[in-house]
Amino acid sequence: MRLEAALALLVTITSSSGLMTTLPSTLVMYNVPTTSRTRPTLSSSPDSEQEKSVPFPLENSISNMMLKFRTASSEGFGTRARNVASTCQVGDIVVPLCGDLEKRRLLADRGIYPGVEYLVVDLKDAGTMEESFGIAEIGRNLEEQPSLGNKSAQDRIATVCPAYPLRAHLERPDWPVSVQLSDVPLWLSKTTYEAGTALGTFMLAGSYLAMASIVATLVRIAVIPSESMIPALMPGDVVLVTRSILPPKVGDVVFFDPPPSIDEAIANSKIGRADKTTTNNFDATPTISVVSTKGKQFIKRVVGVPGETVGVYNSNPYVALCNNDSNECKFRVDRVGEYSKPDIFPDASWNRITPTINTNLGDDKEKDQTSLLGKNEYFVAGDNGFRSVDSRVWGPLDRHYIFGTAKFIIYPSEHFGRIANGNMAISDVLQ
């Protein structure tokens, strides 16, 4: 009972304040009697039968939209929409549409703006009103253009005014204005126009979301956080990363998610072992913490690709380029330099003849002596080896973790352009 009383009070206040009587009051302004198609004025009397028959105004918005779509679907959308020029009545709200620019200009001169909602104030036969409203003049102008309307002997002249205030430069002192309905190619009902507009908006939004999804799948923007790629990339540089379709090549700068081997290498380094010792000692105050790579991405340069013979000599990764016929070898060396604190990681990180490395300092198992990178394995390193923890420390990178390649710096403007090449060179001997 309390809810019903509250709803009744809200309806009474709304109706008595005039918020729900816009259409009838507009008709009264032009001395137009309301019809059965016109929204009724709510009575402020609690005993009125009219008030009881009016539904509560706060209806579900989704239900209203679905109702409009169902109504509009019967009248069609777009070019198949039903022209209501022959069926509209006094009190209806209609929307003129016209695609011809010249016709739009001529109609706008008479106060008929395509896409604006108009209230039909009066309707008369064209035969009796043509001279008084000067329709013949605009008719002659429009006959030069291909007509999209339906000319008929029973064509009507509508006296209309905007259903809502327009911007100042569109307002006219002579509202309402009269127009021969067939001079406008298409008249839509308000419901059809709103449903079509909503559908178009949804489709446009959907297309933007689809494009954004495609772009997010194929392209990323990455900010360089560290000094590991100096001088090619400086901290704070913003790079454009595109998803890799073809396998990365030697010299490509790849953007990838961290493989588990990075965390394993850090955990088994001296820092990681010290952190474990501190954590297990409940009396000690933790002084060392290992940063997790979870949720982070890395960017490094490709030194070796699948099938190549890779190793590390004096902290510089290399690829052995051997001629099977002559047994002569040359070396493609990436001179990245020594790490700032080489003693943190095993000595094999800086000198070995294999791409893989056993990072467990306490493990006595024989190390993997395979010198070739396996299928989908890449050896990557930072251009600035002094600040880079890379494949020298944690071994090959599987292609599964690579998102794409970075080729361009897009910010800041002074660094804009292609990413510079690394410091790779061919050498006859390792040194």
Describe, in plain words, how this protein is organized in 3D.
- The protein contains eleven helices and 17 strands.
- A hairpin with a 5-residue loop joins strand 15 and strand 16 (417-418).
- It has helices at 2-16, 22-29, 49-53, 61-75, 101-109, 126-133, 135-143, 190-218, 260-267, 270-280, 391-394; strands at residues 93-97, 118-125, 156-162, 177-180, 186-189, 219-223, 238-243, 253-256, 298-304, 309-313, 316-323, 328-334, 377-381, 397-398, 402-411, 417-418, 424-427.
- It is rod-shaped, with a radius of gyration of 38 Å.
- Strands 6, 7, 8, 9, 13, 14, 15 and 16 form an eight-stranded antiparallel beta sheet that branches.
Provide the helix percentage.
Answer: 25-40%
On the 0 to 100 scale, the average pLDDT is 78
Structural class based on helices, strands and sheet pairing = alpha+beta
Shape assignment: rod-shaped
Termini separation comes to 93 Å
**What fraction of the residues are assigned to beta strands by DSSP?**
15-25%
Q: Helix tally? A: 11
How are helices and strands ordered from N to C? HHHHEHEHHEEEHEEEHHEEEEEHEEEE
Radius of gyration based on Cα positions? 38 Å
The major sheet is characterized as: 8 strands, antiparallel
> Which segments are poorly predicted (pLDDT under 50) over 5 or more consecutive residues?
1-58, 129-154, 284-288, 359-368
Number of strands: 17
